[in-house]
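Question: what's this shape?

___
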Amino acid sequence: MKKILFLLLISTTFIFVGCNNDKSNSNSQTSNIIKTDSSTPTNKSSPFLISPDTLYPTQFISSTNSLIFPNWDDNNKISIINDPISKSIINSNDIVKFFNYSTHTLTIHGDIIYFADASKNNSLSSINLIDGRYKKLNSHNVSNLLLTGNNLLYINKTDNKLYSYDTINKTSKIIINNAVGKYLLNGNYILYENKNDSSKLYKINLDGTEDGQVAAFAVNSFATHNNYIVAINSDDNNNLYKIDPETLRATRIALINGEDLKTFKNTLYFINLDKNNYLYSLHIDDSNNQVSLSPMIDQSINEYYPSEKGFFVQSRLNVNNAYIFKIN
C-alpha cells in the first residue's frame, strides 16, 4: 500500500456566533490523493452530469426574515425565530411563534409548512403560517422531507420507499421502489443509498426513470462537488472516494474515517470520527492531487445542518438546544 505524506497546516479558523475572539487550531492536514480504483457497478447507471444545485432534507428552513425548525428544547414543536440570529444557542425564550405540533422533518412552500405530524404516526400534514389552519394530507409515515418545485419528496418509513406528493393535485406516487436510506436532489435526478442493495449508491431521474447503480460499494453519505460525486465508503473504513458520473470510475482519494458528508457553497463538510466527532471541512485540489482537512467546530456533534443563516448543530453534550455557528 502506498504511504501517505501528511503535512501539518497552521491557522485554521472558525467563528463561534456570539463570541468576539476567533480560535485557531493546528489539526489541519493535507494528503496526496490515493489513486485506488474500486470495482465497477453491475447494474450501471447511465452517464449523467452534475448540476451546481444540490439539496438535502433539513430540519432548519430559512424563510425571508426568519427561521422555521422543530424546537429540540420543546418536544420538537414547530417554532419560529426572527432575524437577526445573533446568539450562539437557541433557547425556547427566543421563539416568537410556535405551533403545537411536533415533528422531526419539515419544509415550507409559500405560506404553508409541510411536516410529519408526530402525534399522528408522522402522517404528512400542513399548516398555514398566517392563520394556523391544519390539514392532514395522507397517512404515510413520513421522514426526510424535501421540496422541489410544487412537489414534496419524502421517505415513507412503512415501506422505506421514496414518494412524491403533488401539492397542487394533492396526490402521491412512488418515485423509488427500492428501500431508501439517505438521499439528495441534484438538478433533475436523485442520488440515493439503496438499502435493498447493501447500501450502494444509486441514481434515478425525478420522474422515476433510469434507476441504476453509481458505485459498487456501500456508502454512509455522499455529496456532489464540481463535476463529480464524493462518497464515504463504508466497505473501506469510511474513507473518501471520488466518482466520475460519466464513466462511473471510483477512486479513493483520502483516508478520513468520516460520516455525514455534505456540500454547502462549494465546500465539503463531514463529521470526523477520528477527531472526537468534530465538524471538518474538506478541500480537494484536483490540479495538485491533494486533499486538505480543516477542523471547523471544536466540540463533539451528532448532526449538523448548513444554511444561509449559519450551521445549526446538535452537540453531544446538549441534545436539547441547537447551537449556531458562523463558518467563514
Remarks:
- The chain is about 0% helix and 55% strand.
- The chain has one domain: 33-326.
